[in-house]
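Subject: Sanity check before I submit

Could someone independently write out the structure tokens for this chain? I want to compare against mine line by line before I put it in a report. The sequence has 526 residues.
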Amino acid sequence: MKLEFEQKIVPDSLYEELCFDDFLSWFDLDIPLLPRKILRPMGREKGEEHFKILQDLQRQVDEKKLRPEKIISQSQKLPFLDFVLPFYENRSLEQYHLYSLGKFVSENLLLEEMEMKSLPESELSTCCLKIREILQAYTQKGFSGLRFTTEEKRLREEIKKSEKEVDSKVSKYEREIYEQTGLNMIYPYPKEVSRDSDSVPKILNCEMLSVKPKRDINLIDYQLTPSVKGAIAKKNSLTRDFNQLMKNKLRKINRELHPHYMEFKRCYEERKDKTFYYALLLVKQHQSLCLPTFQVPLGCRLKNAVLPSLQAQKKEKYIPLNLDLDHGANVLFGANMTGKTTVLKTLYFQLTAIRMGLPLCAESIVLHFPEQVEVHLKSAGNIKWNLSSFGQEIEFFTMNMSPAAYILVDELFQSTDPIGGAELSKIILQEFSARDVVFFCTSHYPEVLNLQRIQLFRMKDVDFEEKNGAAPDLAYLIDSIPYELEKILPENIGDALQESKKPLYIALHFPLPESIKERIREKLKG
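---
Independent answer below. Compare away.
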């Protein structure tokens, strides 16, 4: 089962950076019934219904009434029938189609029997029972061959005898040709012989062969005797009769099967849907994922949410994200290299997974359904569109933001001058604080901290002791980014603005020109 996102749902660069392909590879299971599935964003109603089905099945798993691995093991025996359905609908099923159809209905009935033990509302599909009954009446050897009547068996025996007679006479004929001419002929294929060949005189004198000049060669063919021709004609006649009987039989089978087509098609599609749900639960179980819980009030509460690509990189040093966002405007404040952008991307990753109907890399998540998710990250602009980075950011806010949307913006209006950027940030935050959306942005502007009706967060700094001109090495600093945030209450805003020299210490560990480093050290001494 190969899962893919519908194109352009996630910006290409972000899709690659967040390693969505690696995440989707977790769901790569060998399920012939579901070779490939394109995931598309779900609306609220469909999305909530989708996760309700998963949660209901999860309860059966928790109560040990359902074992996804056992269900999937049986589901892997179901063949893919999308190519068979058009033949079924048009009453043109051939013998090899009957095998695939029979294989599906018999394995599906076994699967339904397993489900009946776990899910009380389950029952055997009437159409599968009827189709299996019809196929068993007309086929044998596990649906791989047609079952013959007495007349058909007699005709098959006559064909076998006739084939032996033809083979015997033709073999004898070919031996005589070889003895007379030295040619190895294989009936019914003619043979090309050069006109300069030494065997041409013998061939011309052989009554068992015909010679037809063709450019610079002679085309040698059989000149069959009436006895051989008669044996071949008899075999062909018997074969035509038998083939006609088989065509009539297949027409009869198609007539009997066709009334069950619509119900079977519905059953087949439902089985694919169920198998997809079971596969999601199996991966959820293996990867320790969770299902979201939906609420009516707007907001989002993440507990120990994970960005898999970053977790794989940092391993045991990775710190999951805990975040509680209200509706309206939410601002994440903090210094550089504290993980603000990572917080934004982790949230975007989780919201995207939910929109696509996938289990989540988190301990739990409670939120209103993310029907619309918009994200704007730092950009250098776009020459093709004749837009600067500031122009792109302004254009982002011209989009239609529907009620209940999630809007994520990294470094709000850092793309312009500090005075204008601060004023625009305040205007945007005041606007979205009054809307029924979840607006979440990162910012460096202290001017936004005194705004009313916004929720403030601050990233925790890298924890090290500041000493004059010294700090841990760069690798340590990068590994020590806590990726933790804390809520800032109004009475603590002053602490959020307190000057920190940590950015200066951190800068010393980059390969800056020595003249710049010396100025930094002087600043630290002061």
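---
OP: Matches mine. For the report I'm noting this point. The chain is about 50% helix and 15% strand.
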